[in-house]
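Long-time lurker, finally posting.

We've been working with ADP-ribosyl cyclase/cyclic ADP-ribose hydrolase (Ziziphus jujuba) and I want a structural starting point before designing mutants. I don't trust myself to interpret raw outputs, so I'm hoping someone here can both generate the structure tokens and explain anything notable. Sequence follows.
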Amino acid sequence: MSSSSSSSSSSSSLKKYDVFLSFRGDTRHTFTDHLYTNINKKGLIYTFKDDYELQRGEIIAPALFKAIEDSRIAIVVLSEEYASSTWCLKELTKIVECLGTSENILPIFYHVDPSDLRKHTGSFGKALKEHEQSGKHDPAEIQQWKDALEAVANMAGSTVEEKKTHEAKFIDDFVNITLSQKLGIPSTKTLSGLFGMESRLKKLESLLVKSAASGDDDAHFIAIYGMSGIGKSTLARTYYDGKRMSDKFNGNSFLANVREVCEKNENGLVRLQKQLLQDILGVSFEIGDVSTGVELIKGRLRRKRVIVVLDDVDSVEQLNALAEEDKWFGKGSIIIVTTKNQSLLSKKFQRYEAEVLNPSEALQLFTWKAFETARPPNDYIELSKQVVKDANGHPLALQVFGSFLRHKDMKEWESALEIWKRYSKEDIVKRLKISFDALEKLNKHIFLDIACFFNGYDRDYVAEILKIRYGLSPQSVIGTLIDKSLLSTQGGNHRSLRMHDLLQKMAKDIVRNESSDEPGRQSRLWDWSEFCHVLDNNTGTEKVEAIVTFQKESTGLSFEAISNMKRLKLLMILDSPETESDYGLTSVNLEYLSNDLRLLHWNGFPFKNFPSSFRPNELVQLTLIQSNLEHLWNSSIKPLRNLKVIDLRYSGYFHTFGDFKAVPNLERLILEGCVALSEIHPSITSLSKLIILNLKDCSSLESFPETLRGLNSLQTLNLNGCSKLSKLPEDIGDLKSLRKLGVTGSGVNYLPSSINLNKDLEKQFIEEIQYLPPPIVQDNLPSDLRYLKKLDLSRRNLSNEAFPYEFGCLISLEDLDLCGNPFSALPPSIKALSKLKKLNLEFCQRLTSLGPELPSSLEMVNVNCCTSLESFLDPTKPNHDMRCSAFCVVCLKLVEKQDSQMTAIAALERYLSQQNSHHSSQCFQIVLPGNEIPEWFTEKSSGSSISKELNPDWSRKEFEGLALAVRYRSEYPRVNFLCKMRVDDRKVVMARHYHSYVGDSDHLWLLFVPCDTLSMFDSRGRNLKISFRAEHCDDSFCGPCGVRLVYKKDIEELNKITSNYRNDQQGYHVHSSRSKSEAIVSSSSTKFKKLAISSTPKIVKAHLPSGDLRSIRELDLSGQNLSNEAFPDDFDRLFSLEDLNLNNNPFSALPKSIKALSKLKKLSLEHCERLRSLGPELPSSLEMVSVDYCTSLESFLDPKVPNDIHCSAFCVDCFKLVERQDSKTTAFGALKGYLKNRRHSSQGFNIVLPGKEIPEWFTEQSSGPSISKKLNPDWCDNVFEGFAFAVCFGSDSPDHFSWHVRVDDKKSEMAMGLGGYKGSSSHHLWLVFVPCDGDYTPMLEWEDSRGNLEISFHAKTSDESCFTSCGVRLVYKKDIDRFNQFTWT
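Top reply, 14 upvotes:
Generated this for you. Predicted structure of ADP-ribosyl cyclase/cyclic ADP-ribose hydrolase:
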């Protein structure tokens, strides 16, 4: 960035985005897309375009509005359809509110006349009129939209006229002139470091094409190698940035400065492994060593297509730890490595040697740095060409020398060139030093400090330390170093300071050359080994002015050498991130400590006291974390007027601060975890500038000043965990600046009356209080906490009787946390909290009911894990004022008492019933145990996503919003579930739900997204896709799902459904009819889920009731003496039926109407001894059929007859079946059908039938009850489908059989059983398939195993001799593909 821009944009440099782009969908794929692409090419401009940048958040509006607030300027593309979107109008209003003037807003009037905005005519006037007539929007809000349109119309914008403006040229000029000047950024062609980038990117892409053309579909490895400063990292970063946003990749990671990270950190490789996994998976892993990290990378990333850059690698160990093999990553992954040493690279790498700039590119780069133009002035052309020729195309040398020559006259140029030519083209470092030598003294010092201590650190952090060191702000110096290309910024918002490794080496060599043989005579020490050398040999001298180092061990060291460093100003002995703290205690006192110290930060300070001569009058910050210090200064010391920060956290021996008058200007005092501290000296009230007082977990603190008068600036007082502190000063409420007070876990059991703030302090109130320790007996709240917004009473052992009498005084309370308390009911007074929005009742395990006592203002109630809760949002009760979102995870008793589906539907109906309430623009959610999508949802899918083609007028006037529902599995804790919505090609994360509990029950997540939120989508879109997923889990965790577009008439339908449900909930019953020859099922309502018919002597004809049977899931007709003629004719009405029990009936065939049961999963026909055949009449949805002891059955799953039945089957003692159909052929044919048509990805497969031979297809067989197999290294790759087992058994007695699987020494075992086997004299064959992604398969534990697979079969009551043989086969995709080629001999 130019010098002019760096100063002018200093105030805006803290913004997250340079540009916020506002537009309507009618320009998305044309003008706006070209504009966005052109802006992106600049590289240095960070643009927010919501369909690319908006990734998170439950509610969309706050995220977009925050993006507007975080943007420097806004570009508004005002098109014909812009005002038809209320979303765009709200966006524009926010832009005008935040950015205000034409200086920060760039309007583009695309095919519209600005006067239409000003006068509300044309398409803008029409749209505004429609919004007014819809009745959905407040008139005041519409007026705000009009005002915003007028404001933008009066700005000096750019106009694009239809069929007149050359749009490509307009965009090019707009970006490179208008926008670039506004942001102070050079045009695209003159971007520093990006000259010639396009041609190099093409060459890099050609290597990828070459790798793909080789036919290898595994990960692609590309290496960029070459000398330092030639642009390897820039090329890799540019290529990475262009690829990482692609939908083709599941994740991305750029590991910068690998060599430096490994040099600076003892466990640098572990740190990089953690970052790699965190970047791609979004999960932080605990990694003990490199080998553990390798296993995690291989196991977790092997099925993910990723793009990864390993920048500046200099050892094979680094490659082996981070990306040794292509099988570590999913197919199509791209791994890019930059290195100076190509000998590290194996044959798998496609190699690209980074090229120096050609003369034309080099001249452009140098000219931009020297003159900030694309072409040098005529007088300087020849001189510029000389520099370019001598630089040999080296980008870093050109940048630094060009920046050095900027603003210099001709004589200065000629003089500098003479020095430049003294050094050879190869001696880059000496040429770079020319720029350093020309710096002013302070600039040199700061440059060396950053190079030696703070390369890669946050700019603000570095500036704070350097300000303390030099007594003035270093920001202008940092800006100068950036301007001279001696320093750059990287990372989000460009907040990280980065110095090129060649420049850093130059700087460190400058310091080391101060005393090449003795580091104790250098001005700066940073290397721990060199620091230890100085300590061990006591060679410290007055030359040392700054020490910043990371200690790797501290025991056994003598720090006497520090006593000799009389001019030491900066001393920072820090903990290495990867090294556990093991501080020693020394009985030796430090003889001397420099009185010139300005900043002393020493983790694990080993001394009990400071030297008696220590008078640090210049000290600004004292940080001694986990120190052995016992006390600080008393009144005898001369006041340390510069000291502003004291941080002694977790100093376990610290017990006394003698007199606070010694530090009169202290602003922050942090004594957290000082467990020996028993009192706070009354002189603390002299600290009128103290802002933060942190005494958290000072467990011995008993004595606190009786008054705090004098602490006029105190904003935060943290007394949490001060268990021996029993009371607060009575005048604490008089602290006008106090904002946060914490006494959670302390001995304080009431707040002083002074906390009742008076009317004169309306804008200076306490907004958040955590207080009241356990146990609590009846306690009153202060009577005037009118401004309290958040109250935390979590885990306070609150019983029913312990609630404060009056909650009514908390008139401003918005957030109440009562989680983890033992009360069984809330007090009626909670109804008075008229502004309460959020109520947290998690883990209130005695709470039994909720309802009428809750205030109508609530927007969210959390009752997760309230295991005794039986009544909440009861659908059988009339509407009350509860219209909030609700989270009821693991509330199993609730759904036992209340129908899960109807509870969710009724809650939605309540929410929708008041469209004009303050909830109307809020999204709605409810989560509770359940596994079925309500029938009200018109579109359903059995998977985790659903698509729908939209009608042309889908977003018409009556449109209210979108209702969504999904069932998800909750077997793992801490899982983020996401809901994504796509209309045409625009995709947004609409909502997320964090499930933090483990359980074996499925849950229903139902959402409603109002139309206002959906207005960000193009109303003319035609293709809607909703997808649900669990982060870092496979798709099987979510599904089925449903969607419904909701219009006003649908809300009326919801009202009727819930009203009918409430009117009659007596349930269905079954009774005998007027005669014994007829069974009639009757009902007193219209819906039920489970139906059982009581036994009758003989049924001639069974009738189903005439009511609505849509909700029936289970039907039990077992033992009803049903003949062929007695089946109901209208089975097809049971279209939701999933489980049908027809056991022990005398029919010989099933009716054809059973085929219509399209959701039937389980069919039980045991002991139907006259049943002769099964097949084409069965629905394809079946997952399990049991025909045990159907002794007449002759045909079922016939391998010679094509059918679409691919379910598990249990055929115990079906001897006639295997007489007609070969046992092995039937079993293997059923397995083939299942595998080739596997829909239920998490469902396994079983078949049992008479037989005593294992099919030959099983490659490993054994004559006993167990079998072992050696696993190949890549046995669990991404084409692995699962395990197939087979066993033959025989037993005359009833038994329960099971199988167990063990891989290596993993403790995880699977045990599933064939239960209820009644015994038989004949042998049976049991064949099993367990999918790799199954519900009971711990693949995450097994997939990295490389040893043995063991399968064993067990009988509960018999010995294992009943198992005569067994077999196993690992099944891969190729095995399934070859099924058609397999024949029996």
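Before you design anything, note these points.
The mean pLDDT is 80.
The first strand starts at residue 17 and ends at 22.
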